[in-house]
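Worked Example 4.2. Consider the chain below.
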Amino acid sequence: MAPNDSAETNGEATGTVVGRRKAARYIVPFAVAGVAAATIGLVPALADSGDPDLPDITAQELIEKIAASDEEQLSGTVKVSTDLGIPSLGGLAGSFAPDSGSQGSNASPDAKLMELASGTHTLRVAADGPDKQRLSILGEGSEYSLVHHGDDVWGYDSESNEVYHASGGDTGGKAEGHKAPKGVPATPGELAEEALAAADDTTSVTVDGTAQVAGRDAYKLLIKPRQSGSTIGSVTVAVDAATGVPLKFTLAPSGGGKAAVDAGFTQVDFAKPAASSFSFTPPEGAKVTEADELKAGAEEKGAADKARKELGALEGFKGLNVIGEGWNAVAEIEVPGGAGMPAQGSGDVPAQAQQFLDALGDKVTGDFGSGTVFSTRLVNALLTDDGKVYVGAVTKDALVKAADTAR
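Applying the procedure from the previous section yields the following structure tokens:
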């Protein structure tokens, strides 16, 4: 019989996740850029194929199984797809790289991995312990690879024939320093770890039957908000019954439609990968850029460094206030200078520009006053006319209610 825990059976498994930080040991340790997520809405090839008959297990036992997994060797193919309701970042990725511009490199992971924040992508992954990993993004007639071997990290973009290289001195000298910049995770395990780390008393965690993913039997862990008003409907993690490794991650929005993030193995092997998977030599004629060159170029250019300092100042901004808790938490931020959206007819912007701004969001009113809500499938933001911002993974109505509560 396929497991199907109730709240009474598993105690909802909230706030008592055992050793969840250990769950990252078995995954390819590239915290792939872009948000939170990485990445989901899988093609039919990844659809569940069958309902295997597995022994009953509680949600707490399944979480412990994930945390206890010690698989550090694997290789396989991952299909990731993201539909957050935002434009594709493919052509804009370089703009987000701190080293973008004339001093940049097409092979720098800061820029390349941002592409995973939207659209559908096929990845090849391989790992052999904490010091050897490889991640490749397969394109149409091209490939981008990021290889970590000991003290070296190599990035190679076949389309431009450019190479990025960082050594221990450029990344802190530790294995964990060689991870790609944090952002959208690329593997089901990375996504599952983020979801489990956020579980608390506002979260329901149950076992929702079984599935087969990449030809392997798996349990389905279902994570849902107890509260209404969240734009996140549920998170489902398919966990390999034999190894405890997450094989598939699906984030469904509460508004329905296809998954907002979906990542899963189409093929996976837990045998030791070939040593050649983690070796890299720059191809003849390739342009090689060292990480310290990019850093020096950015400092000389100054603009990127200034932007990062400004963002850093915002992170410690004293005006930040969190309204609500759990899945319904909303951040209230005071805009420096108190600048809100230009009022219609104010003459602050040309009429055509004003029409464009109005088309981007929905005008709303409440006890807080008036403002504009900008929406994606998961995150909504309210910019009030008096210069405050309310942001959260909540519906428009919940956002307005939070703004009213703050008054």
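The chain is about 20% helix and 30% strand. The chain has a mean pLDDT of 76. Compare this with Example 4.1 before moving on.
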